[in-house]
Amino acid sequence: MSTSGIPTRRPAHVTARRARRRPRPWQLASAAVALGAVCIPTAPIGAATSPLHGTVTGAGKPLRGVRVTLFAGSRTGVRELGRATTDGSGSFTLSTTRPAAGVLYVEAAGGDGQRLRLRSVVGVGDGGGVPARSVDTVTVNELTTVATAYAMAQFSDRRGIAGPGPGLQNAAATSFNLADPATGRPGGAVTADSANSETLATLNTLADMVSVCATGTPRCAELLRLATPRGGTAPADTVQAVLNLVHHPTLSPAALHALAGGAKVFAPGLSTPPAAWILALRHTAADLYAPGRIGFDAQGNAWASNNWLPGTRQSNPFVTVLDPAGRPALGSPIRGGGMDGGAWGLAVDPNGSVWVPSYGGNAMAKYAADGVPLSPSTGWRNGGLVRPQGVAVDQRGNLWIANSYGLKGAAGLGSLVVYPHGNPAKAFTITDPAFNHPFALQIDGRGRAWVTNSHISFAQLMETRQTGSPGPVGGSVTVLGPDFRPIRTIHNSALQGPVGLALDSKGNAWVAGLFSSAITEIRPDGTVAGVYPLPRRVLPWSVAVDGQDRVWVAGFGNSSVSLLCGTNTAACPPGAATGTVLSPPVGLRNKAIQHLTAVQIDASGNVWLANNWSKLLPPTGGEGLVQLVGLATPVCTPLTPLPVRPSSTGCSPGTAVAGPPTGSADHYTVRRGDTLTRIGHTHGESWLTLYRSNTAVLGPDPHRLRPGQRLTLP
């Protein structure tokens, strides 16, 4: 089975020939040298074919007599398109065609008992968030193998690479960033930024690891042994070995580092063993500075708000959009719409429009899916916005805004503002005694809103020279129903300055306590299921949940990412329980990672991070977004609203979760204590307009409402 759940289909001639014993590729070497590259062509698959010229190398030398196979992978599975055998110079030629959708990749197998297996992506089809492209020359070696394994990890199994778009195509574009398939050398995204130097060294060390199987030494068996997870199956070849390191990045760091050190084919390598085998890519762009929050649209583009202008603490008027390969997209940086210092919130509505709070402008900015500003030059200030932070869009299209009252506001301030169906003209404000600098907002599968009450002013964090945690500051989480009424507020000693919040697929809330350095799990009924401490210096700010309900935490204090086992313990190593920390004690760290305020998962399984600050003292803006390649289980984007793993056919917006029990977007069910004035105020209508629309239900007396009556909202 492929990762998409679709059985891999192979040509009939391949199945028939399995019954006959074939000589190994190495036994064909002399014939290959005599005849040149042996190629078995295939019929075109819809477009004119063109030759793909390639070379296979191992340990820096050409490999002859190696079987090379061209595959197409898509949501329907894997297809073999052609085969060739390398000649004495390691060269081969295959006929290729640009894929209509999905990806093309080549695989070279042979040597050391077939344990050496190399791969390279050579084509990306339509259907992703990146332009279709293909190469006509490829070098297949250890470096392209590592790049392909990491980038395509969430779409790979023992039968090949396949899965739904746009995640599949976007992942292939990331493989080009890691390694140039034409040259077999590190990709431009790795070499162009000095912040990615640690990733360059890790790439080379992993490639050296693979190269031990190209030399026919006993070290190949040692690699496969060391790359076997606890309680897992030993990898059959080098591709599976590298995939195991992606899925279990803390496997045997010291021993594998020592094994790679004996090869020294690729340089520079890591001078010391890593805490984890991760590949991090920092992406920078004009005016991408001090990013606060990240969100993904349906194509996988990363939208980011920016706090400050580069090199200053002045409000940044730009919103950044990067395509899935980390390049500016949709005219980014985008100016206009009232943006004046992006805050922590960012949400994508059902129409694909993106809402970003303007912290400095006390307003909301809105952008079309193509990046065109839709809000006026001052933004929308309806609802009395004061330093808005988190935002979320519910299943009915209502925009919820956390009115935080700012970093320097007095304790106890705060409210929520709602734009019904995204209409600022009908804005209304929700108040509650529990609201205290509300920060993050998320919507659950029942249409309820979860909001963190940070309980503090962050002025001390911004302006003092204290680097330790303050004393108890308190904090809470408030849950509101689809009717906009507060249901309950949850308190716990671990909720000290709670900021980020994320919901898993079962509706459990995972809350980051900034000053307790703990993650609190809250059940859908509001009871606390567990508190999971992290090292004090982590200062967790943001949380994201992947497609297998594992919990990813962005650390503001020590520039790290922590991974916790979620409620789906089957997705965690043997013996792990909910809340078990799966990452190294200090988290996943890399030179590219700075002080983080956001973490999000994309449809390719990449973990994206916002480098908000580069220095704590004095406060200095961070640079770029960071992509941890292939580590997470993919989720459909944008969130709908809970994390859902893409199916074999991809994602169907709006069908992943049930809508709220109160009915459709245009109806309201009367509850005890309701009045037309109160309902009308909540939904931005006068009581008279509401009554005239519901005379048949209410009868002649507008003051007599009965619980259970279903009113139509104009």
TrEMBL record:
| InterPro entries in the cross-refs | 6-blade_b-propeller_TolB-like (IPR011042), LysM (IPR018392), LysM_dom_sf (IPR036779), TRIM-NHL_E3_ligases (IPR050952)
Gene3D superfamilies per the UniProt record, alphabetical: LysM domain, TolB, C-terminal domain
Q: Where is composition skewed (Basic residues) in this entry?
A: 10-23
Q: Where is the LysM domain?
A: 666-713
Q: Which SUPFAM superfamilies match?
A: LysM domain, NHL repeat
Annotated region Disordered: where? 1-23, 648-667
Q: Which CDD domains match?
A: LysM, NHL
Tell me the Pfam families matching this sequence.
Answer: LysM (PF01476)
- Per its record, how is this protein called by name? LysM domain-containing protein
UniProt source species:
Streptomyces albospinus
